[in-house]
Amino acid sequence: MAAIITFLQEHWTEAVASIISLLVGALIGRWRAWKRFADRAFYDRVTVSLNYVEDGHFKIRTLLERSSMELFRNAEMARAVTEACTKKGRGPLLALPENDYWYYLNPVLNAISERFAEGYVRREAGTGATEQTYLLFLTCENEEGAAVRQRKVRAMMIREQVLLSTIDITPVFRNEFQKARWETLRKISEELATNPETKRIRRVSICV
């Protein structure tokens, strides 16, 4: 006990500073979490969705959702994605270096492939699985005035033929948030038309 008292007498300032630092860090963490919820901005999450038109209605189905760190498995990549998502006025496609885009889309593709593993096996075995070509791209709808429920990174998938054949129509939307997603797809179509070799949009084959 005497040793403890002596230690505290000699180092009490360091102990108090450490405690204050822990409390301040905890408060900052809670404030940031509250701010993200208040702004509905969850830039550390990545949602992968399948988008399509069925009987004139626009449909969005979530395939998976992961934290950026869990999906990309690299702190610098996760940081770059979050930073790109907070940049406004640059369109829905993430403003990442085009030559690096393969490294960001590939882990997303791997996660999607896990969901369709049975289709790949059936295809290889010749038991009836069909192969479809989809477009895969990373977006973040953070432009001013965009009607979105949550602001986060979205990896969107749409069958290329569906995009080409339906983008000029106006489907039925379930809510106003779907209109923002359709506007994103329209801009993706424009990007493909003006820059067909872009590395920011990847064509992938999925066996279903």
Task: Please tag this protein with its features.
2 domains; five-stranded mixed β-sheet; 24% strand; 208 residues; single chain
Topology:
Elements (H helix, E strand, L loop, with lengths): L1 H38 L1 E14 L2 E11 H5 L2 H12 L14 H15 L1 H9 L5 E9 L11 E9 H7 L9 H19 L6 E7 L1
Parallel strand pairs: 1-4
Antiparallel strand pairs: 1-2, 3-4, 3-5
Q: Can you characterise this structure?
A:
The chain starts with a helix and ends with a strand. A five-stranded mixed beta sheet has the order 2-1-4-3-5, sandwiched between helices. The chain has seven helices and five strands, in the order αββααααββααβ. A hairpin with a 2-residue loop joins strand 1 and strand 2. The mean pLDDT is 83. The relative contact order is 0.17. The radius of gyration is 23 Å and the shape is elongated. The chain has helices at residues 2-39, 68-72, 75-86, 101-115, 117-125, 160-166, 176-194, and strands spanning 41-54, 57-67, 131-139, 151-159, 201-207. The chain is α+β, with helices and mostly antiparallel strands and 208 residues long. It folds into two domains: 1-39; 41-207, no CATH class.
